[in-house]
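Researcher: Sit down with what I've pasted below and flag anything odd:
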Amino acid sequence: MSALTPILSSPGWELLASLQARQETNPIPLRELGGALRASGVEAGLAAAVLTQLALREAARTKFGPVASHMVFTRDGLEQATRLVVAVRHAQRFRSAGATRVADLGCGIGSDALAIAGLGLDVLAVDIDPDAAGAAAVNLRDFEGSQVRLGDVMDLDIAELAAEGVDAIFADPARRTGASRGSARITNPEAWSPPLSAVLRLARTIDRVGVKVAPGIAYDVIPADWHAQWVSVGGSLVEASLWSPALAPEGRGRSCLLLDEAGAAHSLASPCGEAANVPAERVEVAPLGAIIAEADPAVIRSGLLARLAQRVGAGIVSDKIAYLTGDDLPDSPFYDRFEVLEVTNLRPKAIAAALRSRDAGAVEIKKRGADINPEDLRQSLKLRGGTKELTVIATRLEGRHRAVICRRLPANL
């Protein structure tokens, strides 16, 4: 029996709906709510299933916003689900390319399928996990053109799918050793399920193919004529994806897409026509300037740090360390800027003295190329009584470990 079974029929579904409405108008801690359910005679298994869904829905708001209150989740499915703002971007590619029926292979709880269906396209969602497929079926319940199948995507006949009207594919290969949250990530794309090469071959039959991949994917396994994109939301890297030529109006190459909490989008791309699988361009080392900048992780992972450096006239502080520097770096959505105040030894006593001399009472600690534990360093500084918040960047300068004492500069974009 599925863990979702108690809430997918009466009286569980009605109980979940009523408690969700109550929590949104007059929320109470779930522990208290559980006690009230048991006191009212609700069976223990049903109470646990309902409380689990309420907790997952609350956690899912960071990915799905208010839509989460109408969805059903599994713990693993929520962890691995595409954020709705990103899934909508995926769906827009399919709609813009003229797709009419998209197969979502490895659909999980159906986040991408939901976005695709929400833009008016038909969806065939497939997953091997019964709980995930069950959740996807519930989440797609309002879309008549949607269908969910329980099965192994490795067993699918793509020619048969094409004969059924499927004219586009979105695949999310399993990249863990098992279904549990504690399972290890698989770094070799050919050990994914299905293997990356098998997914890429789908484009021979259905030319509109998108693939969600690990952000750390090696460039040399990306097809030269495809487009690879890394996406961050609010400064956190959330995914990478590969798009066949039919779904890549920007052309072949690599790009990063930065989405902020206000809905603004900023993109940076490799030179027009450059193959997607070329190595990242090297960035020249420069002396530490008046400003040091931390690039968004999507910029770094996409191999576009050199592109950004050229645009703003920056170098990096040390070989293979992705801190940009210069005397007059402009405000940019692609990095956070810090005014350099002082450079000192990477020792707690020296750092603490520098911070106290500048009236620092709070400190944020960042590191690249330095083997330190930021929290241990913070505790050893023992700052008290200061009024300013400063930043310590632990890194390498001219071959030596150094602490750069900085002031974060506000973004004015």
